């Protein structure tokens, strides 16, 4: 829905906001076929926008299993690699896969913060260590 000025996006305290109109129809997501359709559609959107950049947004680094910062502790990279890639069967049963990826991404995030000495939003490196330890615990649980 356009703003009263005709813009499709409004700036609200420095945050872009768009309002979508209601689309009549059936709710998606209740069946496996719906979920496959949503996944395929989202995949096509990601493919179409792969090379699109929006300034000043930082592009997600995607996870690089060979990144040097994963050597921050001896267990990080092996656990990270054990989180595996996504197979078709895992797509069909996506929650465990997403959770493994989520904890692998957390290991990546806190390993990066520890090696860079990044204390943004925290009081000490102990908070980064806790985030890395939480990732280790959950990766071990989801990789078993």
Keywords:
single chain; 144 residues; mainly alpha; 5 helices; 49% helix; extended
Itemize the secondary structure elements and their pairings.
Blueprint: E1 10-12, E2 15-17, H1 32-48, H2 76-82, H3 88-92, H4 94-116, H5 125-143
Antiparallel strand pairs: 1-2
Helix pairs in contact: 2-4, 2-5, 4-5
Task: Give an account of the 3D structure.
- The chain is mainly alpha-helical and 144 residues long.
- It has a domain at 68-143.
- The chain is built from five helices and two strands.
- Strands 1-2 form a two-stranded antiparallel sheet.
- α2 (76-82) runs antiparallel to α4, α2 (76-82) runs parallel beside α5 and α4 (94-116) runs antiparallel to α5 (125-143).
- The longest helix is centred in the last third of the chain and has 23 residues, at 94-116.
- It is extended and about 55 Å long.
- The mean pLDDT is 79.
Radius of gyration: 20 Å
Terminal CA distance reads: 48 Å
For the largest beta-sheet, the strand count, sense and barrel status come to: 2 strands, antiparallel
Average pLDDT figure: 79
User: What's the overall geometry?
Assistant: extended
Low-confidence stretches: none
Secondary structural class: mainly alpha
Let me know the number of strands: 2
Counting H and I runs of at least 4 residues, what is the number of helices?
A: 5
Report the portion of residues in β strands: under 5%
Helix amount: 40-55%
Order of helices and strands: EEHHHHH
Main sheet: strand order: 1-2
């Amino acid at each position: 829905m356009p703003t009263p000025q005709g813009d499709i996006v409004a700036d609200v305290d420095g945050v872009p906001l768009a309002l979508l109109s209601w689309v009549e129809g059936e709710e998606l997501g209740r069946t496996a076929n719906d979920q496959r359709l949503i996944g395929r559609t989202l995949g096509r959107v990601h493919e179409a926008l792969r090379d699109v950049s929006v300034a000043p947004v930082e592009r997600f680094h995607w996870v690089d299993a060979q990144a040097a910062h994963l050597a921050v502790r001896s267990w990080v990279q092996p656990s990270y690699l054990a989180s595996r890639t996504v197979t078709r069967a895992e797509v069909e049963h996506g929650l465990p896969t997403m959770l493994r990826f989520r904890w692998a991404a957390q290991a990546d995030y806190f390993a990066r913060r520890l090696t860079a000495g990044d204390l943004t939003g925290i009081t000490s490196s102990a908070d980064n260590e806790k985030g890395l330890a939480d990732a280790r615990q959950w990766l071990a649980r989801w990789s078993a």
